[in-house]
Every structure is written in structure tokens, then in C-alpha cells.
Amino acid sequence: MGGVIDTPPFGGGAGDRWPEPPPAPRPGLRWWSAPLSDLPGVTAQTEKAAAALGLQTVEDLLSQLPSRHEHYEQAHAISTLMPGEETTVRARLKSITVRPTRRRRLRMVRARVEDESGALDAIWFNQDYLARVLQPDDWLLLRGKVDSGRGRIKSLSVKAHEVLGRGASEGLHTQGLVPTYPGSEALPPRRVRELVDKARPMMRAAPESLPYALRRRLRVPHVADALHAAHFPASFPQRQLGRGRLVLEELLVLQLGLLLLRRAEQRRAGAPVLEGTDELVSRIVKSLPFTMTVDQERCRQEIAADLADSTPMRRLLQGEVGSGKTLVATLAICQAVEAGYQAALLVPTETLAEQHLATLDQQLMPAGITPVLITGKVARRERESRLLEVRSGTAQVIVGTQALFSSGVDFDRLGLVIVDEQHRFGVEQRQVLAENAERAGGGATHLLYMTATPIPRTLALTAFGELAVSVIRDRPPGRQPVATEWVREDAREDAYERVRAELRAGRQAYVICPRVSEGETEDEGRAATAEADRLREGAFAAFEVGLVHGAQRTDDKRAAMAAFDAGRTDVLVATTVVEVGIDVPNATVMIIEDAERFGLAQLHQLRGRVGRGEHAGRCIAFGEPGTEEAERRLEAFAQTNDGFRLAELDLEIRGEGSMMGRRQAGATDLRFARVGRDLEEVERARAEAIAVLEGDPGLSAAEHGPLRAAVQARFVHIPRLLDA
């Protein structure tokens, strides 16, 4: 394997000085974006299999770092092998045969190999093709477990092998630190490893975005060295140095873009100064049956200060389920109305819009404000009437879906937009929303984003890095934690009896299912429609069972929710349509079916629907997890009610989702960094980005040209970012 290209950053001491290395021969820049078919030996079939894994170009291939490295020592002589050990041998092939075994579908490939010290048999199973491709006198590197029989070395069960002198780097699969990549049946990890090896010379085509002076200050290697060390390191510390540089660069580019975006937002045309009179706010506060918590009051003051400034507010309000975010938002709405402006509350679904309308109607009653609902399914005559209220300014508070910013909705004086369920939006969606709000209001508008999904610090600095953040951590007085248990299928009936005891005591229960109706396969999880029928005839036959899900007509959903809210329904079978915005104090129990299918954040959100009254809540999560990851989620869910701790665990287990777009878990648009484990690097990148922009606010210096290009490429859909 080749050595490290740029030595000083890997080996120099803290006081070392080294010159910028002279330009080395490198492939043309076109190789970085070249299709994989340009690599030698890549067939159309291989290209198709790679594309299915998201690998279409040399950049895609080299930007997918190994998930781990297996540590294989150098080759040993056959005579030194010990039974039971896993080892590597370098040997010459003498003969090879394919033999059937006692098991019909299992065939054995047996090869006799030798070196100067001795001979042994190498064995593979169900790899008949080897008898065609391996030839006598081929030199092989074989990695496997040594088997013995009757006190002597008998064979080597081969785990990995390679034929020396046939193109691939010697020891690629069997010696040193061997990289392991995600693969598929059509393109197994071994084949991905070979493709990366073929592309190894193209690492020098990788564009370097960090100027030499910055690399020197950060003590990180050239990008080509970093890629080489991340894929083919000589040691584990070298691998960490390589990956660390790639992570830091990626996070630095992200932080620069977010800081520039925040600056651009602050330089928009002045937002209305919403200085309240405190008249309506004080009415609301005096009407509360409790005293606001310290966190609620602090967040209210932070938002109030933003609203009273001409710089457009861009703030995220996050907090635990039931922590009182809606109350804080209501007080912000009152401040906007006091200043003579309108406030709009934007939510992702019509069901949630109706629920928020009911909540705001109640909370704003002491202030004499009646909110208006604007959605896409309002009758034409009623819609025209409401639009006139909005246009004339008669409607001071408007609740709705994205229909709020559709053609025909004209605001009189829009000053504040509140966006609920903010975690469903990415950076670019927030930019589009801000522009829509500006068009609707005829100028810059204050924006407050809310989420009931607690956001870990690392995620707040990345996915939400362009926003100021307010956090409500404490819970309102009297709100009790919800007792949670993870229940296996064999204990279902005992769990049902505990629920029936609550129902007989006059309480109510939710049953949450992962999908609406039954599909073609049984492994899709329980369906709400079928589960409602089953419970009506079985476990809860003595009680009224209702049903609500997202596929119902609006009137049917409204009727089902109203019946449950009024206590006419004892058990409500539902999908995640009840995840947020539902407040039925008499509901004390929740059953979650197929709980392993939900993420931790969503499980915690659902659990927050119970225990909202004077009686303690209970959550029963039925689940039979088939993976270690799913089991970790259910164990964590049952062990803690701390939403912030669960958010950290969810980030660690499932990934951060898409920073820029709508995906919220799993695959991420960060190629190298993982914010669940790279908190130190996130904070370091943030500090470096601030320092770079202090010295060069527009990244206009010649040395920052490549860095500027990297920021523009990442934030391609955010116009005029660097010119604002």
C-alpha cells in the first residue's frame, strides 16, 4: 500500500514549521467527477450495482468512508500456524477441486497450497467459480481460521483471499488494516474495496478547499492525504487523523454557510418593530391557573426582545412534551397584536391546524382575540369570508397549513409567523418559508419555529445553526412523569387487564398503530382499522372504541376527536395523527403497537399525550424488535422520561437525517461527520468559522476562493448568500 503523501501534518510536533509542499503530479480535476465506468475493469453490471448504493462517480466512491477496519497481521509461515487461530498465509497453489458434501446444497472447494515451510488445505464453501479462476502456481494470500484434526494442522477455512499479481494492491483483502464498506448482494464489500483501490490514484484529484495557512493552524493534512489515511491507513491513529480532517472540513463549510445565512437574514429589509403594551399579555398571564415556570418566562422575554427589534427574528423554541411552548407562543402573538400587527401560526397538517385553533381559541379568550382558520378544505363561501377578514385586518390571528401562503391569501399587516413542528423542515425549506412569509406580509417578517422534539446541542449547532435557540427544560407544576413499560407479546393479556382497570375507573386510553389499513404482507405492523375492529370484539368489548387516522375525511376525524375529548369514547385507536397537539386530560393510558417501528423522538411525543391531568399516566409499548438497534430504542424508552436524553440517544442510534432537506433519520447529507459523536468537532468548526468570517466577511480573499466555492456548492439553493 502507498504511504502517506503529505508527511508533516501527521508526524510534526507542535512547534514544527513546514513549507507548502510543491505541487505533485495529480490526475486532472475531471477525475473527481468522472463516472465509475472510467475506472479500469468496471463493467456496466458493476456500474449499475454501484449506482444502487448511491455510488456513481469517483467522488461518491471515495467519499464513502469505511464503516470499520479489520486488523489483519502480516502473513505467517505455514509451519508456525496454531490450531484455532485466525491468520494470514502467503502460499502457492498446487491443486484445486470441488467436492459435494453430505448436505445437498453445500459444495466444498478444497485447494492444496504450500510455502517453503510446509503445506495445508484451504477450504471455501459454495464458491465453485474459484476452481475456474485459480490456476496451479498462482501465489495467494489467504486469511482464515486454522482447523486441526488428529493433533495436526488440517486446513484453513478461508475468510478472505486474493491472487497476487492480478491488479489489486497486495494485501488489500488480507493484510494490515483492511477497510470494510457497506455493500449489497450485487456489489459485496470485497468488490467495493477493490473499486476504491482502483480509484486510489484519483485521491489527488480531490479539490482542496482549505488554504494552507488554515491547514497549518488546524494541524490537519491535505485532503488527498486525509482520504488516503481514512481508507488505507498504516495505523488506527492515522485513520483517525484522516477522518478527523474530512469531518472538520465538512463541518466548517456547513458552519460558514449557516453563519452567512444568519447574517443575510439579519440584513433583510427591516422587520416591523413589535413593541407591545403588555395589556393583552398581562390578561393572559393573570388568567392562568398556575404560575409560569422560570424557563417559560425566560423564553418569553427572549422572544419579546427579538420582536421589539427591527432585525427579523429567526428563533427556535424547543422544549419537552407538555412544557408550555404553546403558551409562550400565545404571549408572542399577543405582543404582535398589541403592536397593531397580525400573527399567523403555520402547521403541517389540517388536523393539527384544527387542534391548534381550539387551543388558541381558549388561551386567547381572556384577551378577546378569536383566531381564524385557513386550510385548503374550507367551503368556498366560508373561505372567501375568512380571506376578507385576513385582508382587512379584522382577523388578528390566523391558523393554517401551507395554504396560508397560497395565491389569494393577502394579509393586512403580517408581523409574526410561528411555525409548529419545525423539526420537519430543513435549512432550505426554512429559507423558502421565510421568503413566502415576506411576500405574504409585504416585507420582512419575524419567524418563530417551535418543536416538541428536544434537539441535542450538536444538532442545534448544525441543522439549526442559522437560528437563535430558546429552550424550555422544566415541566409545568403538577405534570407527572409517565410510567413506561416495554411488553412482549406473551404478556399482552396482563397488560390489557391493567388498561381495563383504568377504563373501569372512568379514565380513557389511546391505542397507536403504525399504519392505517392492512397490506399484502404481515410484517408491516398492525393497522388501525383492523385493530379497532379486533378490540371492539375482544379485549375492550365492554367499552366504546373509536378510530381516527390521516386517511379519513376531515369531518370524520373531527367527529372522532370530539367524541374522545368529550368522554363519549373510552378507547381511541389511532395512527400518529395524534402525535402532537392533542390534550385530553382524562386520557391516562397509551398502548403503542409495534413500538420498534418508531423512533425514540416519536415514541416520546406519543407518550406525551397521556398524564396531562390530575391522574398519573402509563404507556405500554408492545414490541418484538428484530435488531439490536430497535432493542436499544425500546430499552431507552422504557427507562427514561427525559426527552433531551432520549433525543441524544435517538441521534446516536438513528443518525441526524438531512441537514438541508426533509429527511429526518437514517441516511444523512453529511458524508463524513456524524453529529451524534462529533460534538467537539462541531464546536471547533463553529469557532473556526466565526474566526474566518471576522477576518474575511465575504470569503473574498484569494486564498479563500476554494472555500467560498465549497460553501456555494453546499448552499446552492440559497441565492446571494455571500453577497448579502
Describe the structure.
The chain is α/β, with parallel strands linked by helices and 724 residues long. The chain contains 23 helices and 20 strands. Among the domains are: 74-174, OB fold (Dihydrolipoamide Acetyltransferase, E2P); 279-472, Rossmann fold (3-Layer(aba) Sandwich), CATH 3.40.50; 483-640, P-loop containing nucleotide triphosphate hydrolases (Rossmann fold, 3-Layer(aba) Sandwich), CATH 3.40.50.300. A seven-stranded parallel β-sheet has the order 10-11-9-12-13-8-14, with helices on both faces.
Structural class: alpha/beta
* CATH class wording of the domain at 279-472: Alpha Beta
Largest sheet: 7 strands, parallel
Q: Share of helix among residues?
A: 25-40%
In which order are the strands of the major sheet placed? 10-11-9-12-13-8-14
Instruction: Say how many strands there are.
Output: 20
Mean pLDDT: 83
Number of helices: 23
Low-confidence stretches: 1-22, 659-668
What portion of the residues fall into strands of 2 or more residues?
15-25%
Q: Span from first to last CA?
A: 47 Å
What would you say the CATH architecture of the domain at 279-472 is? 3-Layer(aba) Sandwich
CATH superfamily of the domain at 279-472: P-loop containing nucleotide triphosphate hydrolases
User: What Rg do the Cα atoms give?
Assistant: 31 Å
CATH topology of the domain at 279-472: Rossmann fold
